[in-house]
């Protein structure tokens, strides 16, 4: 069976217009997949040159298949029906390894048609390294490499205002575009580059704040069967879910030039990304965090099992509709549509998402994802939200680490593991009441940002839920909620 190459599998070729820092699965199933569709259907003509940002001796790179690879998009459509679609991606032209091909890397700055920069270098990638130098081949950090390219472009085109770049970081960092711009200008200061260059970066380049969302599972386990169906070998085959969202805050130029409007509503150009970030954190991440202890203590193992369980699915749905969505700022119909999509994603039969894998650092996740909706719901209604307080009680029960018939691993910060181990042992010997246990958890102002025991009625509400969970089991406790 032939491996993918452009001779045996001829097709469209696009001009180099995009530099992409990062060769990983996510960008290939997200950015490059979108650009490929836009190239075909909108005539965008956006060819991608991948820059591998880390110094690794990698012989197995995308050039072996001349940039070609396949995406396999699988999940549930808007009607809840399973769908699976493969696409041969032609938007990616080649890969450059800047540590071994520094001259080729710097030559990208001199290509007149080069216009866009996308990146995903992980959350740790947008960072400043004091020891980086302009003369390095290349600078060690991603922002340092980008500054090297921008300075070279500025020099080569003599500060031409039309040769600025639209720069789109996809790292999961708040205000990622603003942060990257700040670091580029910081490198300009470190390297004593002229003020005129800094003005060019400020006025002729644009840095976008972004929110990206798609589950990408990588190389599928059934690859041999898939390759037989496709008729070729593909070492870079990548699988992802049907759903995707790309929210961009910045000048309209990017949206217009790449014709992203054709991908609406999945791709949005907004004035303020914050409400969309809050939507994702509260609805998608928050539903995960609330679901995990409830579903696991009900005897389930995966997200899919939880969403196919009528009792658990009804609990998650009610938590979203009644208690989380009313606390968010976007229009209700938009929030409910997002919740519908989230619940479909949770039911994706092609993804096995273990509950215990999501349970990591559950205490911090509850604080960052669900505490604000819990407090805001109480502020709006004068009542403690029953689903959110139940989730908090279930989380405390989960950190017991065992039940009558099984035990499970706990992964969190050491001080939480030590505290729960000690306090649950004291509860088992009747040296500590459940009310006191809940009070000890909620009084940790360093963790919660405030002493939650000062919120009237909260300790009592959570303690009542916890008492029912321990006395009657998770399913009966769910049924007994008011």
From TrEMBL:
Q: Which Gene3D superfamilies match?
A: N-(1-d-carboxylethyl)-l-norvaline Dehydrogenase, domain 2, NAD(P)-binding Rossmann-like Domain
Q: Which GO terms describe its molecular function?
A: mannitol-1-phosphate 5-dehydrogenase activity; tagaturonate reductase activity
- Respond yes or no to whether keyword Coiled coil is given for this record: no
Single GO cellular component term: cytosol
Enzyme Commission code: 1.1.1.58
Q: Tell me which UniProt keywords the record has, alphabetically.
A: NAD, Oxidoreductase
Domain Mannitol dehydrogenase C-terminal, which positions? 272-469
Domain called Mannitol dehydrogenase N-terminal: residue spans: 17-253
What Gene Ontology biological process does one annotation of this record name? D-galacturonate catabolic process
Q: Which domain of life is it from?
A: Bacteria
Keyword NAD assigned to the entry: answer is yes
Q: Where is the signal peptide?
A: none
Protein name in the entry: Altronate oxidoreductase
Per the UniProt record, the source organism is Pantoea ananas (Erwinia uredovora)
């Amino acid at each position: 069976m032939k491996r993918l190459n452009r001779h045996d599998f001829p097709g469209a070729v696009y001009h180099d217009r995009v530099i992409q820092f990062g060769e990983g699965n996510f960008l290939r199933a997200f950015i490059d997949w979108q650009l490929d569709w836009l190239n075909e259907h909108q005539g965008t003509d956006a060819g991608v040159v991948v820059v591998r940002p880390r110094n690794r001796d990698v012989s197995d790179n995308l050039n072996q298949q001349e940039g070609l690879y396949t995406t396999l998009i699988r999940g549930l459509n808007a009607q809840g029906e399973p769908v699976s679609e493969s696409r041969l991606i032609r938007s990616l032209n080649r890969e450059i390894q800047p540590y071994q091909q520094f001259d080729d890397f710097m030559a990208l700055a001199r290509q007149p048609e080069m216009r866009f920069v996308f990146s995903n270098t992980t959350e740790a990638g947008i960072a400043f390294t004091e020891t980086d130098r302009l003369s390095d081949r290349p600078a060690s950090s991603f922002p340092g490499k980008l500054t090297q390219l921008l300075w070279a472009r500025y020099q080569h085109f003599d500060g031409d205002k039309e040769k600025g770049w639209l720069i789109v970081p996809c790292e999961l960092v708040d205000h990622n575009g603003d942060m990257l711009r700040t670091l580029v200008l910081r490198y300009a200061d470190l390297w004593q580059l002229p003020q005129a260059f800094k003005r060019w970066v400020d006025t002729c380049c644009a840095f976008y704040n972004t929110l990206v969302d798609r589950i990408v599972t990588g190389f599928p386990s059934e690859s041999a069967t898939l390759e037989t169906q496709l008729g070729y070998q593909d070492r870079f085959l990548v699988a992802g879910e049907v759903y995707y969202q790309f929210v961009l805050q910045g000048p309209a130029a990017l949206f217009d030039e790449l014709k992203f409007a054709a991908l609406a509503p999945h791709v949005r150009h907004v004035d303020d990304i914050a409400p969309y970030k809050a939507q994702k954190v509260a609805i998608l991440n928050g539903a995960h965090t609330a679901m995990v202890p409830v579903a696991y203590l009900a005897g389930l193992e995966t997200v899919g099992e939880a969403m196919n369980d009528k009792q658990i699915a009804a609990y998650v749905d009610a938590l979203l509709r009644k208690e989380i969505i009313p606390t968010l700022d976007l229009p209700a119909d938009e929030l409910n549509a997002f919740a519908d999509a989230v619940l479909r994603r949770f039911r994706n039969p092609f993804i096995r998402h273990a509950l215990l894998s999501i349970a990591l650092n559950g205490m911090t996740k509850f604080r960052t994802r669900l505490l604000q909706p819990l407090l805001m719901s109480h502020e709006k209604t004068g009542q403690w939200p029953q689903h959110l307080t139940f989730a908090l009680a279930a989380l405390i029960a989960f950190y017991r680490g065992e039940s009558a018939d099984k035990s499970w691993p706990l992964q969190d910060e050491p001080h939480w593991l030590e505290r729960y181990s000690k306090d649950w042992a004291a509860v088992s010997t009747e040296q500590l009441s459940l009310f006191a246990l809940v009070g000890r958890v909620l009084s940790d102002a360093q963790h919660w940002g405030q002493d939650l025991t000062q919120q009237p009625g909260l300790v009592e509400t959570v303690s009542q839920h916890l008492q029912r969970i321990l006395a009657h089991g998770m399913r009966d406790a769910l049924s007994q909620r008011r």
